[in-house]
Amino acid sequence: MDNLFSEGLTLMAFGMGFVFVFLTLLVLVTGTMSRLVTRFVPEPVAKAPKARPRPAAAGSAGNNDELVAVITAAVHKYRK
Q1: pLDDT in tens, 50-79
Q2: The model's pTM
Q3: pLDDT digits (tens, 9 = 90+) for 6-18
Q4: SS3 labels along the chain
Q5: Within 13 Å of residue 9, how many CA atoms lie on the same side as its CB?
Q6: Hey, where are the domains in the chain?
Q7: Which spans are transmembrane here (predicted)?
């Protein structure tokens, strides 16, 4: 019984040691890769957003007729 218990403890120690070494290597490799990527691959430069034309005021006679027609069609389509 004593021999079986010592074999179990040995197997547990080797298993836990293997997992510890693997996770340590994983952290080191991931950190190294992160540093290499940030050093050699620059971040993409964000483009300035294009200025969109401002919509016409509610009181102007611009596209109000078309806007009213579109809204009316949408209301009629989805009203039940």
Answers
A1: 877 766 555 555 568 888 888 898 888 888
A2: 0.49
A3: 999 999 999 999 9
A4: CHHHHHHHHHHHHHHHHHHHHHHHHHHHHHHHHHHHHHHHCCCCCCCCCCCCCCCCCCCCCCCHHHHHHHHHHHHHHHCC
A5: 6
A6: 1-43
A7: 12-30
Rounded Cα distance between 20 and 12, Å, is 12
Rounded Cα distance between 68 and 15, Å, is 72
Lookup: tokens for 76: 């009629």
Q: Among residues 12, 31, 13, 33, which one has the least CA distance to residue 23?
A: 31
Look up residue 60 and give its two tokens.
Answer: 């102007």
- pLDDT of 12-53, one tens digit each? 999 999 999 999 999 999 999 999 998 888 788 888 788 777
